[in-house]
Amino acid sequence: MVALTPGIVVVFAVVFLALVFFAWEPVPADITALGILVTLMLVQGVSGTLASYGILPGPIDLFGTGVGDFPGQALSGFASTATLTVLAMFILSDGVQRTGLVQILGAKIAEFTQGDETRQLSATVGVVAPISGFINNTAAVAILLPMVTDLAERGRTSPSKLLLPLSYASMFGGMLTLIGTSTNILASQLSERLGVGAFSMFEFTQLGLVVMVVGIAYLLTVGRYLTPERIKPRTDLTEEFEMGEYLTEVVVREDSPLLGQQVQRALVETEFDVDLLQLIRGEETFLEPLGPKQIQAGDVFTIRTDRDTLLELLDAEGLDLVPVTVDESELEVAEGGQNLVEVVVAPGSALVGESLVSASFRQRYDATVLALRRGGELIRRRMDRVPLRVGDTLLVQATIESVERLDANRDFIVAQRIERRDFRKERIPVALGIIAAVVGLAAVDVLPIVVSAIAGALAMVLTGCLKPTEVYDSVQWDVIFLLAGVIPLGIAMENTGAAQLLADGIVATADFLPLLAVLGVFYVATALLTNVISNNASVVLMVPVAVDAAVNLGANAFSFVLAVTFAASTAFMTPVGYQTNLFVYGPGGYRFTDYLRVGGPLQAIFAVVTTLGIAYFWPLTP
């Protein structure tokens, strides 16, 4: 049994605080990861100084490097092959996305499904799963989400029935190859550092195929009936967001005190909870920016407000109510195009933690937010100061040009298929060739995956699939900083003996459980942990423990690492367990319990299938 040392106590304290911060998210996960990194460095640096003055008996060596040489190890996450490979995969995925290949595929799928829900569901999971094996699965969901909501709208199907399966299928599809998810890449690097060996490109593809088949079968049968219809089949976005009581039109009277004033001063900068959506003047309809326009008698404004505020507004500003029903078609009359869209706040968005006011949303994007949906909750009053979260869905009205800008902005995912004019369709064969070369060169061990991925990212730019200015926007920097921040925690766990101490506790279960059951314990423990904190953080915490436990048991460490890897990549039971679950949380109108209801049985099935599959394909003992 490993003795409890000051280093182990420090590591456990940091792990406990990290779990609390990851679970409750008072700050974003990447900031928590940087906090972990800084804390570990400060502890080792300050303890060394205190030891030199005789205040402490000795320095707390967390990284096994001695007092003066620790910054290199502590900052190694930034130079890690896992971090750099994930960074390159984001660029590769974006190169494929900008060719419009997936959008073309979506149009073909729409033709195939023809409004049939069974075909829609089959096509959704049948497409996203294999794609997620070769394009980062988070990126795959971001690309396919508009296609799936479009399928639901065309077929008069509830998007709730398709979006949760989309997220789940992307997760188990990501287990087909090494590059399917950042978790796999990180686990491979940790496994190599611990002496177990890195994963090859198709190291676990056979098990990934088994898991994928089982997962698809579940989603098409039991999962289909457990998945709720939170949002009714849509014919009109204003109906979906229940805007009937909040949208109306008012006309400016001849005696109104607003005459001659600018819209900005008279109706925007006011204490009333009112949003102006459009101005109808004669035969013309105007959208944002409305602020500079001068108000005239007979002007008709379409507004969002509640009934009580409307009555105050009519009395105070000399306005009359127009007896008309404001629906999606009325809000899209200005340009005869798609002016009303759902916009999802993406992970890593600059708007996370900001409100519509603090982010100057209306001014920055020339767009107006009519409503906000957070899971099953609809907010249609006093939205301006609500701090935004990842997965929040905004009902936005804007010009066609503004909608296209929102669609191109990585802070958002526009949940409708937008006919963009800037796709580089002529580069489709080139982008596919680059992806094939990256996978092929790594698969036959001509080049390490990090080298082939970075070379492929450069090739995307040199061949025109990506512009140089688009490279930095294509990377989810929050994921990169998350990886760089948590990797040193794994190093500290191993060097201090904290991982060994945890492993000793789990190994004790071998006194009354067979080896196969102990392997299952690791899967279940990792899965439960991942459903609460980041998948990458759970891999960093559990892989060193799994390796030490396997060594103590005389078992095959590779099998135990695989159990942790698969469990960390398939977190079905909470919306916070995996980024793709957050993607669909708002657009699907889900409740927290929906993930338990649909994902709980799937998690249990995967625990059994994965554990047995590992035992079948890889021996549990050397």
From TrEMBL:
Compartment(s) of residence: Membrane
The keyword Membrane belongs to this UniProt entry's keyword annotation: yes
Main localization (coarse): membrane
Transmembrane region(s): 6-24, 31-55, 75-92, 162-187, 207-226, 430-463, 475-493, 505-526, 558-578, 598-618
Pfam families given in the database record: CitMHS, TrkA_C
SUPFAM superfamilies: TrkA C-terminal domain-like (SSF116726)
Membrane topology classification: Multi-pass membrane protein
Keywords assigned by UniProt, alphabetized: Membrane, Repeat, Transmembrane, Transmembrane helix, Transport
Annotated ranges, domain RCK C-terminal: 235-319, 328-412
PANTHER family: BASIC AMINO ACID ANTIPORTER YFCC-RELATED
A single Gene Ontology CC term: membrane
UniProt cross-references to InterPro entries, sorted A to Z: Cit_transptr-like_dom (IPR004680), DASS-Related_Transporters (IPR051679), RCK_C (IPR006037), RCK_C_sf (IPR036721)
Record protein name field: SLC13 family permease
